[in-house]
């Protein structure tokens, strides 16, 4: 290949995407202002208020509230369980999404709708359902009332749709010919999944996992009936915060809330970092 | 013979994609599967690659019965119309993919990838992501990726179909030259007769799941087996009950030559060096194409009375006379 009529390849754009967007015009400035105000009113100011309340009593009060034995146990239970549930959801959610997208079977449409039920159901109703199924008078003979598995189960129930719903559309959009190309290059089904499909799904899985974790940490209604809220055993942070408020201990409630805020923030950032790594590694 | 396709049939529900197809594809050549969309040519290519299984029939690749082999084991390179790039991998890692699967040593992979990227003129883009390449560049990357595993046959499914006309033409020339260098048995699917005529050593015309004709570009153009092939490979017009190519017709301004029929010019269109003259002959409109010089020497105008005939040398060279409607 010494002579070629191909036009010389122009240098393409640099690897870093070009910054999109223009300076604000009067109209877009108004839009930006409204968006920022909305976001501030609903999110930033309340969050800041929580942090301010938490710090009102000074560092020692904060530290005392957080290191209180009962509070620490609640935080540990909540975060640990939310973490475990998220891991389960990553695997099961991806699998359910796969089945919904790639397979054809009787009742697919029904399953498609049912997936959202845990999400759409008022959480206290979910709690009632769980209590009647897995409580004292369980028709299944499974009684996990007032135990830690009850918390785990409640978290699983309400977070089920998140990974499924984030992965499903991405999986549906994947081009089949990319997988076929990998297969004709000699890749086994497993290799195709690991090296071609999974990297494309990772951002969606990470997003679903973040939602699932956040929802788990904040869960209240679905577990409050089944778990029994036993201090040091099955009491989660949302219950703990509520009881702090009921005892007129606002500082302590805000302190716990701040810790949860921090943990959620760290987890979401971590998931994003992991996700970016995975995508690049391929 | 490098690829033998024996009695292959394939249905999708009620739709017959391939109906008892038999083709022998010669080794080391560039063969085009040509036909209209939905005619079954892509299905045939995918059956050769193992991406689709035939309902019946047999596929042999280099003497090995491949009918039951998985696509991973057929050692074919496949290039898709829409590139099928691995979007999250750099250009170099796209090309390296097949070699990594085969667990070749790192040094060997690096060397081979570099060699291939040079071959497809993408050496300076090795670290880019596919999304940062143009369509033509992406397709060249896909070609390098397919060639990396040294396939026994290279299969291309409408490889230039998604590109604009100019890039198409460039890549077409380039594929021809690449093939002259690499000599791998290559089959490509196209619905563009010009592309097939220009690039292929051999053309298989497929329509409605059946093979209409197999032959060299010259043979197909000059002695088409039936009206379908004649119409599909180039422009046609009707004179009386004969189907002819417009450039095989002559216009005469003098008196009654033998075999010529009188008519009146109704329209003259100039397209570059080619002049298209539409002549009303009895109840027909016959299209005749002339070169610019022929046209000027005849001094033709709309409304001129002329005689139309099939050029004598053509009348003799066409093997069989074709009657309209007969296939």
UniProtKB/TrEMBL annotation, chain A:
Q: Does the keyword Iron-sulfur apply?
A: no
Tell me which UniProt keywords the record has, alphabetically.
Membrane, Sulfate transport, Transmembrane, Transmembrane helix, Transport
Q: Where is this region: Disordered?
A: 1-20
Offer a single GO CC term for the protein. Answer: plasma membrane
Protein's cellular compartments? Membrane
| Residues annotated as transmembrane | 29-57, 77-101, 113-135, 150-171, 192-214, 253-274
Q: Which PROSITE patterns match?
A: ABC_TM1 (PS50928)
Q: How does it sit in the membrane?
A: Multi-pass membrane protein
**Pfam families, alphabetically?**
BPD_transp_1
InterPro entries in the record: CysT_permease, MetI-like, MetI-like_sf, Sulph_transpt2
SUPFAM superfamilies (UniProt xref): MetI-like
* Gene Ontology MF terms in the entry: ABC-type sulfate transporter activity
- Chief localization class? membrane
Q: Boundaries of each ABC transmembrane type-1 domain copy?
A: 75-271
Could you tell me which PANTHER family the record lists for this protein? SULFATE TRANSPORT SYSTEM PERMEASE PROTEIN, SULFATE TRANSPORT SYSTEM PERMEASE PROTEIN CYST
Describe the subunit structure: The complex is composed of two ATP-binding proteins (CysA), two transmembrane proteins (CysT and CysW) and a solute-binding protein (CysP).
What is the protein name for this chain? Sulfate transport system permease protein CysT
Q: What is the lineage of its organism?
A: Bacteria, Bacillati, Actinomycetota, Actinomycetes, Micromonosporales
Q: Which gene encodes it?
A: cysT
From TrEMBL, chain B:
Q: State the InterPro entries in the record.
A: AAA+_ATPase, ABC_SmlMolc_Importer, ABC_transporter-like_ATP-bd, ABC_transporter-like_CS, Mo/tungstate-bd_C_term_dom, P-loop_NTPase, Sulph_transpt1, TOBE-like
Q: Name one GO cellular component term.
A: ATP-binding cassette (ABC) transporter complex
SMART domains with a match to the protein in the record:
AAA
Coiled coil residues, start to end: none
Q: Which UniProt keywords apply?
A: ATP-binding, Cell membrane, Membrane, Nucleotide-binding, Sulfate transport, Translocase, Transport
- Per UniProt, residues of the ABC transporter domain are 3-233
SUPFAM superfamilies, alphabetically? Answer: MOP-like, P-loop containing nucleoside triphosphate hydrolases
| The keyword Cell membrane is annotated on this UniProt entry | yes
Known EC number(s)?
7.6.2.9
Annotated PROSITE patterns: ABC_TRANSPORTER_1, ABC_TRANSPORTER_2
Q: Name one GO molecular function term.
A: ABC-type quaternary ammonium compound transporting activity
PANTHER family given in the database record:
SPERMIDINE/PUTRESCINE IMPORT ATP-BINDING PROTEIN POTA (PTHR42781), SPERMIDINE_PUTRESCINE IMPORT ATP-BINDING PROTEIN POTA (PTHR42781:SF4)
Please report the name of this protein according to its UniProt entry. ABC-type quaternary amine transporter
Gene name on record?
Answer: cysA
